[in-house]
Amino acid sequence: MITVSVSASENYNVLIGRGILADVGKLCADKLKNTKKILVVSDSNVTPLYTAKVKKSFTEAGFETYTLTFEAGEENKTLETFGNIAESAARLGFCRDDAFAALGGGVTGDITGFAAACYMRGIKYVQIPTTLLAAIDSSVGGKTGVDLPEGKNLVGAFHQPSAVVFDPEVLSTLPEKELRNGLGEGIKYAVLKGGRIKEIIQSGLNPENLEEFCALCVKYKSEIVSRDEKESGVRQLLNLGHTLGHAEEKLSGYKISHGEAIACGIYIMAKASKNKGTLSERAFEEIVGMLEKTNLLRESEIGKEELVAAAATDKKNHADGLNVVTVRDTGDCRIEKMSLKELGEYIK
Ligand code: ADP
Ligand code: ZN
Questions:
Q1: What is the residue-level pLDDT of the chain in tens, covering all 348 positions?
Q2: Share in percent of the chain as helix, strand, coil (round to 5)
Q3: Ligand 1 centroid to residue 131 C-alpha, Å
Q4: CB within 6 Å of ligand 1 — which residues?
Q5: Which ligand is nearest to the CA of 133?
Q6: Which ligand is nearest to the CA of 238?
Q7: Whose atoms come closest to the Cα of 72: which ligand?
Q8: Whose alpha carbon is nearest atom 25 of ligand 1?
Q9: Are 17 and 214 in contact (CB under 8 A)?
Q10: Could you tell me which of 4, 32, 15 has the C-alpha nearest to residue 167?
Q11: What is the largest CA-CA distance in the chain?
Q12: Which of 75, 130, 185 to probe ligand 1 with, by most ligand atoms within 8 A of CB?
């Protein structure tokens, strides 16, 4: 088992290891000392696969364990589902010291984390990611929230988990499309950090290197989050590929997945930097190679002007311009302030 420690407003560990799902109760116990009750939240795809195992593990570790299942799908990442979780907890008599466990992908993690952030003004929760995307990205860092009809993640809070427990064996049931979705974020880390993360993508992810890969991604993210929990500075590096990626996702009516879209966003930025001469041909070819290897190399069907116009409505924008992440080399990305017009020029 690999342990990555995260120091944010709350310090916690990310535990990664094959087969550790069966021990999740024991592994979380010392972080949940005063907790009597646990509510395990998962969606309708994940519940039949893993909830019984997780419930048994928490029960054996001495917790009074309850479960709640919501209908799978991003369209259920709503205030209504959030309300159901909170109301269930209230009916079950959950108090300040009790906790939630988010068993699932990013949707489950975001919504359960948000319910934990709000129930009784904040109770503990643990993350048990079951997608690659959640394991290397959304389960770490404390961003929680739900969507509104008006836009994604418009209501939310920062609330750090007490522990993250990831068993890579759960990826064996994950559909290929969802795996690729996570690989988009994986490429992001490879471009941001370079080194071993890049090597693993280049050689191909496999069951032997998966744990190491996830641990390195989480370690990189946790270092950034430790330095900038609320995303006012260096954490914005994690938005590499996201300015244009979010725009493409939105314009496609979310038919293009997050991972596919940000991979395309990274590709557009890298190509622009190569054309400007700030990214070498070698580094550009490396990035293209990684995108090819993961089946994520693609030209956007949406025009660049349209992408830039859609980027203008992103909630991450500030009045004085966009913070865009540019690529100098693999392992060397920078945050640069640009107006919309400048971004349009940059990627032309
Ligand atoms: P993310 O935001 O991490 O991509 P979601 O929560 O949207 O994740 O999950 C993606 C889809 O995969 C959902 O339909 C979910 O029910 C399903 N899913 C999550 N984990 C697993 C798993 N380990 N095996 C099979 N399906 C899974
Ligand atoms: Zn992302």
A1: 999 999 988 899 999 999 999 999 999 999 999 999 999 999 999 999 999 999 999 999 999 999 999 999 999 999 999 999 999 999 999 999 999 999 999 999 999 999 999 999 999 999 999 999 999 999 999 999 999 999 899 999 999 999 999 999 999 999 999 999 999 999 999 999 999 999 999 999 999 999 999 999 999 999 999 888 888 889 999 999 999 999 999 999 999 999 999 999 999 999 999 999 999 999 999 999 999 999 999 999 999 999 999 988 776 666 678 899 999 999 999 999 999 899 999 998
A2: 50, 20, 30
A3: 6
A4: 43, 45-46, 49, 72, 74, 104-108, 130-131, 133-134, 170, 173-174, 178, 181
A5: 1
A6: 2
A7: 1
A8: 174
A9: no
A10: 15
A11: 62
A12: 130
Q: Which CATH superfamily is domain 176-347 in?
A: Dehydroquinate synthase-like - alpha domain (1.20.1090.10)
- Measured by CA distance, the residue closest to atom 19 of ligand 1 is 105
Query: What residues does each domain of the chain span?
Result: 2-173, 176-347
Atom of ligand 1 nearest to the CA of 181: 4
DSSP 63-95: -EEEEEEE--SGGG-SHHHHHHHHHHHHHTT--
2-173: CATH topology is: Rossmann fold (3.40.50)
Q: Which residue has the tokens 């369209």?
A: 75
- Other C-beta atoms closer than 10 Å to the C-beta of 53 total 14
Residue 266 Cα to ligand 2 midpoint, Å, equals: 11
